[in-house]
Structure formats: C-alpha cells, structure tokens
Amino acid sequence: MGEAGAAGTELTRRLNQSMWAALGGPGDAAEVTFTGGEVLAGPFAVSHVGAASFAAAGAAVADLVSTAGGAPPAVRVDRTLASAWLAHWSAPVGWTRGTPWHGVSTDYAAGDGRWVRLQANYEHLRRAAAKALGATEDREAFARAIAAMTADEAEQAIVSGGGAAAATRTLDEWAAHPQGQAAAAEPLIDTVYGETVLGAGGSFASGALAGWAPTPERPLAGIRVLDITRVLAGPVGTRTLAGYGAEVLRIDPPGFLEPEGTAGGGDLTLGKRCVYLDLSTPAGRDTFLTLLSQADVLVHGLRPGALDGLGLGADARRAAAPGVIEVTLNAYGWTGPWQGRRGFDTLVQTSSGMSTELMRRGGLPGPQLLPSQVLDFATGYLVAAAAVRGLAERARTGRWSSWRLALARTGALLRSAGEAPAEPALGAPAGHWYEDRVYNFPKGPVRRLAWPATVERAPLFWERAGDPYGTATPIWATAPNAARTVLPAS
After folding, report:
1. Is residue 356 part of a domain?
2. Is residue 103 part of a domain?
3. Is it true that the peptide bond before 232 is cis, omega within 30 degrees of 0?
C-alpha cells in the first residue's frame, strides 16, 4: 500500500471510529480490516465516509453475534467495492434501467446569480412546485419562474407550497446558517435508552429476551422489521437488515410507487415484502399497531410529526410495542428552524454548500453534485447499524431504545473529514467484482456487486427478490416468539 493508500485507509478508519462511538459500541468491538483503495474522485471524502458506514454496519452485526457467546467475528471492508456500491447499485442483464430523475429535477438559475435545486421526482412534489411558482410542470416554465425571483424567494415559495427545493449556499454560508449550526451541533446518532422489558413470564434467558438469540451464520433470522421509509437512506438501511436475515415488511399508502429508475430493478425493496396500508383510516391504524406489537424494529423516515398527525405518535407506538427498537431519520436535523423541512440528499448537498464548492473548484457553469448520494447511503448503513446495536443492547440488558439520524448531520461528518487524500480513481466495475448469481427482479434480471463488508461466517445475502409495491398481505410470515411478547418492567 502506497502513501496515498495508507492515508486513505487511515481516514476511513478514523471515520469508522467516530461512527462506532456515535453508536455507543463497546470497546471490545470486532476488528475491522480495510483493503482496496480505488475511490470516487473529488475533494470530499465520499468513498471514505461510505466505506466507514459499511464497516459500522458490519461491526454492529459482529457485536450482535457476540451476545450469543464468544468474541465478535472479524470484519473486513473492501474500500474499492464500497466505492462501487456507492455509485453503481446493480447491473441489469438484457434490459435498460430507467432514470430515477424526472426532467424537472435539476438546478435553475435564479435572478440574483445563485441557483435553486428542485427535487420533483414524485408527482405530488412537481404539482406543488408548479402551483407555488405559478408555472406549468415543465422545465422551461420552472426556469422562467425561478429566473424572475431571488434564490431565497424561490426556495421559500416552493417549500411553503409543499414542494422540495434548496437554494445554493457556500460552505461558509451554511456553517453560519442557523440550520447548519444546529445540524453540526447534534450528535451523529441521537440515542435514547428506555426501561427494561421482560419476556413472557417475566424471565430472561442468558441475558437476552427469552425466545431469541442471534445465529452466527444468519444473525437477524427471526427478527421482524417494520419499514416506513422512502427513497433513499431508509430503504438502504432496511434492505441491509434483510440481507442479514431479518423479515422486513415495508408499508406504503395505497397506490404508492417509488421513482421508476430506483424501483425498476427491485433495489429498494430487495429482500422485503411490500404492503399497502392506509394509515389515515381506523382499520389501517389498527393493522399497523398490530404489526408493530409483533415487531422487533421500526424504521421510519417520515417528516417529524407525520405519525403523530395520524394518531400514531410516540406514546401510541410505545404502548403497542414496549420493547420495539425504533430508528428514524430526516433530512436537515432534529433541531433548528428547518427540522421539519422536507429534504433529500441532493437538496442537503445544495443547502450545505457542497454543490457550490464543486462548481467553484471545477470552474463549472452551474452547481455540481457529489459523485454519489453518499449522505443517503452512509446514513442508510448507519440506520442498519443503529437497529442492530439496539438489538444487541436489548439482548444484553433488556432495554428498548430509539435512534435518530439526519442527512445533514452525516453531511457535517463528511465536511469534517477534510480534503480527501489523493488515491486511484474508481474505474468501471470489473466483471469479477460481481456475484456469480443473477437475481430475477420485477423489471428483469440483474447482477449485483459483491458485498463490500465481510463479517466472518455471516455472509450477507437476500432470500427473496424485491417485491412489487403493495403485493403482500399485511401479516408477518415468520412465527411469533417470546422475544416479542413483552411487558413493561414492574
């Protein structure tokens, strides 16, 4: 390994240590070995944060395995494969994947020399933005409307109207912005531990809730995960849990579909069953609470207050499922003036100055996004790590826990990493990087890159292709066990 590779590996290791500390991981965690050294080009440490998040998820799984006895298995992360996973997802075989980007989701020049990024891949966001700007839903109309406004005026109009947009700022402007300061001051992962919960009969078995312990070869087998997330970070986290053996049940409102390019190969639903459930109705809420009462983990990425508005606030959820581990995420953070603002990775990049910095450095005519939606991906793998850490702590102590993450806080970690060391740029994926198997997904067969994080004796793989949305029945497929029949400690 050359000097550049050693510097890149060391930066990745330091980032992973920060993540592990944020996860409250024990000091005797699994040893993580980093190999490989091809990275996504650019001044930001995109590949390093990404590889560190893969390592965090792997270390969490290894720690969970150790709760059944013995030392944590070793973890190895291939930084080249991690970089490839951040950029390439999967390769269709004999068909072409559509783009997830609608034509109007782009950057528009505002009247004050700045830019506005519009995120409108979903129909309701396009409709809201067009109404707010008094425009039709086409690129030219949006461009004319935004050109007649300042960037801040356009951003505020779209956001107030229920759309999703971000005005460009510089890195320094974001550091001085109230929301930038709020996000940077938050913990990378905000964790709350609750009271001890007891298994059926009020007893524990070997320090864990009675009826469940991790199997080293399939660590999450028997675990149920209820998934209410949208593209991209949340689904990345829950599909990782499915890859280690959890049963993941994804809930969407009737008729919901993710943007075509993200869903066409089953990438977001990989390993999951998908159901439609109308949570605005009494029947839908009752079904949700029944599913939740039988679950081990709830992951949700709805905006703050969304579940409360449906009568499914924290108190209702905890009453239905006293022992559930809850992991939630949002875009801009949990404090500050924008804590409830709708956002996506690309918008956070724009708000926080990253796209402007890439434009400045490259001498480009307009903003430039990072080579990967790494805020989504890294947050997603940290979502998985948080869920697994919650399971490990519940196994050791019987305590439930809740975990909160935000794309903007992950962005602050990326920014704090400083200038990325000079390392070989990632090229096109080589044939031997892919698994031998071919997955049969709804839109056609795909090949997947080999998973970059190896946990000794516990391979990650998916037992089912991604289901089409809304095609499953809202019941759990695995048999219940005593680990889920929990009562508050007395």
Report:
1. no
2. no
3. yes
Distance CA 298, CA 295 (A): 7
Rounded CA gap, 248 and 227, in Å?
7
Distance CA(18)–CA(30), nearest Å, equals: 15
Mean pLDDT by groups of 10 residues along the chain of 490 residues: 80 97 87 94 97 98 94 96 91 85 95 97 95 97 98 98 98 98 98 76 38 91 96 95 97 87 68 95 96 96 87 93 96 96 96 98 97 97 98 93 98 97 93 88 85 96 87 86 39
Is 167 domain-assigned?
Answer: no
* Spatial separation of the C-alpha atoms in residues 342 and 331, rounded to whole Å: 7
Number of domains the chain is built from: 1
For residue 314, give the CATH number of its domain: 3.40.50.10540
Strand blocks (E) in 240-332: 247-252, 272-276, 297-300, 325-330
C-alpha triplet 478, 217, 270: angle, nearest 5°: 55
Question: What is the Cα–Cα distance from 163 to 144, expressed in whole angstroms?
Answer: 17
CA distances from 316 to 34, 312, 313 (A): 43, 6, 5
State the pLDDT at residue 467: 82
Query: Can you say how many angstroms the Cα of residue 137 is from the centroid of all Cα atoms in its chain?
Result: 29
Dig out the tokens for 265 from the structure.
């190969």
Per-residue pLDDT at 261: 55
Domain with 21, as residue range(s), is: 3-97+183-334+369-488
pLDDT digits (tens, 9 = 90+) for 357-386: 999 999 999 999 999 999 999 999 999 999
* H-type alpha helices, 321-469: 345-351, 354-362, 374-397, 407-416
Q: Which residues contact 136 (CB under 8 A, 6 or more apart)?
A: 130
Collect contacts of 367-372 with beta carbons under 8 A, ≥24 apart: 367/107, 367/115, 367/117, 367/168, 370/40, 370/42, 370/44, 370/46, 371/40, 371/41, 371/42, 371/46, 371/86, 371/87, 372/40, 372/46, 372/50, 372/86, 372/87
Q: What pLDDT sits at residue 91? A: 87
pLDDT for res 262: 58
Cα 189 from Cα 105, distance rounded (Å): 30
